[in-house]
Design a protein that fits this description.
With 197 residues, the chain is of the alpha/beta class. The protein is built from five helices and six strands, in the order E-H-H-H-E-E-E-H-E-E-H.
């Protein structure tokens, strides 16, 4: 899927949301003017904004980086992949490798977080001409870096998700509810889903 303009791209956040609940992506992409903003969303945004100030004091992950430098809020766009996103942090190792770091206001790493990190890895590969096989998720409440292998399987899954999102947008097709409807309890879109049991 090659697209011409960044505003037509699927966002990395869309990919993360797809891994959580596909309907959230439907509401955002097909009915974009209805999204409510919650206290938790505002709080999470503030937590993210504070992180670069703290990150400069953190030690680089020795397992993957002997030495290198950090960059924050790095924006990428790939017309070929059809996605765009802003990586919270990238580590440019002196050996030429680039490692994405995503900040999460969470106490554990969920599968949709891995999908988001993988999407950042694909964007870096496309723009920087390097292979990205590892990334980190920084769990803000625990102040802990979690190493994530960015596997070929994850990369394939993310490419399939991108294709599915474009199909959904094109057809304005509403996806089914998530298998775990406990996710719906605190969802800002719950009132739009009339089929929750």
């Amino acid at each position: 899927m090659t697209i011409m303009h960044e505003e037509d791209a699927v966002t990395v956040t869309d990919i993360k949301q797809w891994g959580y609940c596909k309907r959230v992506v439907y509401y955002q992409r097909c009915l974009p003017d209805i999204r409510p903003t919650t206290y938790l969303m505002r709080h999470g945004r503030q937590q993210h904004e504070d992180q670069p100030r703290h990150a400069v004091r953190r030690v680089l992950p020795a397992q993957d980086v002997a030495s290198g430098s950090r960059e924050f809020a790095v924006r990428y766009f790939s017309a070929e992949l059809g996605i765009s996103g802003m990586v919270d942090e990238i580590i440019r190792a002196d050996d030429g490798s680039i490692i994405p770091v995503d900040y999460k206001n969470a106490s554990t790493v969920a599968n949709n977080h891995k999908l988001q990190l993988t999407a950042y890895g694909l964007l870096i590969e496309a723009k920087e001409q390097v292979v990205v096989n590892v990334g980190y998720i920084y769990l803000i409440p625990k102040r802990k870096m979690v190493r994530i292998a960015i596997t070929d399987t994850l990369k394939t899954t993310v490419r399939e998700i991108i294709s599915s999102i474009f199909t959904m947008i094109d057809q304005e097709w509403m996806p089914p509810l998530p298998e775990n409807t406990n996710l719906c309890v605190g969802c800002e879109f719950r009132r739009f889903c009339n089929d929750i049991g």
